[in-house]
Amino acid sequence: MHGENISYAYGFWSLVIVNVALFAFFILSYLAPVKKREWRSMGVTLAFFVALFTEMYGFPLTIYILTGVLGSRYPALNPFSHASGHLWLTFLGGGALMMTVIHLISNGLTIIGFVIMWNSWKLIHGAKGGLVTEGAYAYVRHPQYSGLFLIMLGMLIQWPTIITALMFPVLVFIYYRLSKREEGEMLKTFGEEYKQYAERVPMFIPRIGKRG
Fold first, then answer.
1. How many other CB atoms are found less than 10 A from the CB of residue 95?
2. Domains detected in the chain
3. 7-17 burial string, b = 16+ CB within 10 Å, else e?
4. pLDDT per residue as tens, the chain (212 positions)
């Protein structure tokens, strides 16, 4: 019990740097920004992961805020242990089984997101400037962004924080606006062919049981 009371599972800034660097490397590899507006969107995306891993390993701002607001009602004897950092477990109970389920779901979404981004990147580069409508593009018009949303959602499920929960809908809106501008350019380039493609294939979320 004494060991649990003095346990403080944060301040590991080397882990923050390593995890941010890994995620930044893979995301930039499959979603390489070129234009200024793409770099702005990517900057906010990277800020999301910096905030996430800072709270996961560096400084638990969300827990400080929650313990300050709830005081003795905060449902953890030692809120700054690593186990108490899992807010789903802290507020909903559960234990090892729930933690396993949370990790399976969050890791599954993250892996699927990276696979979608990788597959989409291959299709785009293989098309050599042509219009891509097969693979993931047969289900959604912007699968690379859909994959990125899955990764962020997976990380939110694994380690929810106040900042990242607020940033996620903002990022979705930012990429929605970016997608609309990109589609305007695609219409100029491919004309009626892209217009028909856009009419039958949704933007980010595939239609269940339907393919473009």
1. 9
2. 2-200 (1.20.120)
3. eeebeeeeebe
4. 334 445 788 999 999 999 999 999 999 999 888 888 899 999 999 999 999 999 999 999 999 999 999 988 888 888 888 878 888 888 887 778 888 899 999 999 999 999 999 999 999 988 888 899 999 999 999 999 999 999 999 999 999 999 999 999 999 999 999 999 999 999 999 999 999 999 999 999 998 765 55
- Using CA atoms, how far residue 107 sits from 40, 100, 103, 110, 145, in Å, is 27, 10, 6, 5, 18
CA 117 to chain centre: 12
Please identify which residue in the block is written with the tokens 């695609």: 186
- Residue 22 is encoded by which pair of tokens? 């890994």
Torsion of the alpha carbons at 12, 13, 17 and 18, rounded to the nearest 10: -20
Q: What's the burial of 4, exposed, middle or buried (CB within 10 Å: 0-12/13-18/19+)?
A: exposed
3-class SS at 59?
Answer: coil
Q: What is the number of alpha carbons within 13 Å of residue 150 lying toward its C-beta?
A: 21
The answer to whether 60 and 76 are in contact (CB under 8 A) is no
Tell me the DSSP string of 126-142: HHTTSPP-SGGGGT-S-
Helix (H, G, I), strand (E, B) or coil at 179: helix
